[in-house]
Write a structure and sequence with these properties.
452 residues; eight-stranded mixed β-sheet; 12 helices; 18% strand
């Protein structure tokens, strides 16, 4: 790898122009989407084509405990071989020295992709599309909150203090004044994104107090998942510079809307490059309807992946800007599956169920998997929903335990995402859920202690 810097992406080259690279962060996203890895001197990185981490990083829960997912050989923490994807090399502009981050892919000693590595799961699903002559395209939207620092988990999370000296206000969706309140943080987000070579399609104020949304341009699913993974880190770093936190919790503040990662989908015919959701006359195609049907049929089972924590299910509240069912509608934000206004060439399906707390690789993979199964089955969806879908009944799991039970029964989804991934993921999530059930909440102490 003597000349490895000559082949860096242009943004990384520009970042290092006339500068000496000090350090490389060799990272791999784990099941929650946390960056695991090693920081090595640039001189050492130039001499290595891989590094090792134990496979147990994929068995770890969000609390740092372990799921018993090691398999028949037992918990021996076998080394994986992690190889860099140089196309992901990007700046870490918040560091004190000149540092690059590079995402690595995980393999076993025989060169096989580790099936429960989230990036490999998404690659598996994309490869299934391509084997059919289809090219999936996605565009994620990222919602998050800027909050005041919270050093005591027993205290409620509060909105950040804006530049006016007042806490961020709620119910100011799309307000430019509200966006200006966070100007210094947003400026750093733009600067960090530019240094990393990411293009932001827009930033808007959402309905919650201190809640923002960043839209990314559509493109390759793996590349966009990489960007969301990187964006979560850069947004957190930008917030920390201004004495506040950025949180991607699905529901961080009581009585405020939750944060979603809406995923827009289209599928191109690889041979023609045309959008399969529109015909030559610009009309909706059967493939378009089949994709929607796949989301309706399989999203209940996928919910444990796109809503991966107990807090995730607090987001699905009627009339709180989150869907409660799998109805679909044209230009209807109350439905779980929305068809936005667009030209025929840009016709797409928006999955509004995924939470911003999900691992972006797994969230996009699960959503694509549902659409893939719909395209393969060739079924038609339920009739389009007209009106306010919040008035209908909920038809999605309402707790993490229920969602895991539904996932366990979905053999079709297992085959697309990978049986070994489902095995490991289910064990880790069940361990997290069991740990949560041991915690007694303030609500229980307040209302049950002396009344039951």
């Amino acid at each position: 790898m003597a000349d490895w810097q000559d082949n860096l992406p242009e943004a990384a080259k520009e970042f290092l122009k006339d500068r000496r690279l000090d350090e490389v962060e060799c990272i791999v996203p784990d099941l929650p989407g946390i960056a695991r890895g090693k920081a090595v001197p640039a001189s050492k990185f130039a001499r290595q084509d891989s590094f090792h981490l134990p496979d147990s990083i994929f068995y770890q829960t969000i609390t740092g405990e372990w799921g018993e997912a090691a398999g028949s050989d037992g918990f021996i923490e076998r080394d994986m071989i992690l190889r860099p994807d140089m196309s992901t090399a990007t700046a870490a502009p918040w560091t004190a020295d000149w540092t690059l981050q590079i995402i690595h892919d995980a393999y076993d000693r025989d060169g096989n992709a580790i099936p429960y590595s989230p990036r490999n799961v998404l690659k598996r699903v994309v490869d299934l599309y391509r084997a059919e002559g289809w090219e999936p395209v996605v565009a994620p939207e990222m919602e998050f909150y800027l909050t005041a620092r919270n050093l005591d988990p027993a205290q409620e999370i509060k909105p950040m203090m804006g530049r006016s000296g007042r806490p961020a206000a709620a119910r100011q969706a799309y307000s430019m004044t509200a966006v200006d309140e966070f100007g210094p943080v947003i400026d750093d987000i733009y600067d960090f994104a530019e240094a990393q070579g990411f293009e932001i399609d827009g930033i808007t104020q959402e309905g919650g107090a201190g809640q923002l949304e960043i839209n990314l341009l559509h493109g390759d699913p793996v590349k966009l998942a990489d960007e969301v993974f990187y964006f979560k880190r850069l947004i957190r770093e930008a917030a920390m510079r201004h004495d506040c936190y950025a949180t991607f919790m699905a529901k961080p503040i009581e009585d405020e809307p939750g944060s979603a990662m809406h995923i827009h989908h289209s599928v191109l015919d690889i041979n023609t490059g045309k959008n399969m959701f529109s015909d030559a006359e610009g009309n909706e195609t059967e493939a378009f309807m089949h994709f929607i049907a796949g989301l309706q049929d399989h999203m209940p089972a996928a919910l444990a992946v796109i809503a991966p924590y107990v807090n995730s299910y607090r987001r699905y509240v009627k009339d709180h800007a989150a869907p409660i069912n799998l109805e679909w509608g044209r230009d209807n934000r109350t439905t779980g599956i929305r068809v936005p206004l667009s030209s025929p060439a840009a016709r797409r399906v928006e999955n509004r169920l995924a939470g911003m707390d999900c691992n972006p690789y797994l969230g996009i993979a699960a959503s694509l998997a549902c659409g893939y199964l719909g395209l393969k089955a060739g079924k038609m969806p339920l009739p389009e929903f007209k009106g306010d879908a919040y008035e209908g009944d909920g038809d999605i799991p309402r707790t993490m335990g229920e969602a895991l039970d539904v996932l366990a029964e979905s053999t079709a989804l297992h085959e697309v995402l990978g049986p070994e991934f489902i095995r490991v993921y289910s064990i880790v999530k069940a361990a997290e859920y069991e740990e949560f059930l041991q915690v007694i909440s303030p609500w229980e102490r307040e209302h049950l202690l002396l009344n039951v």
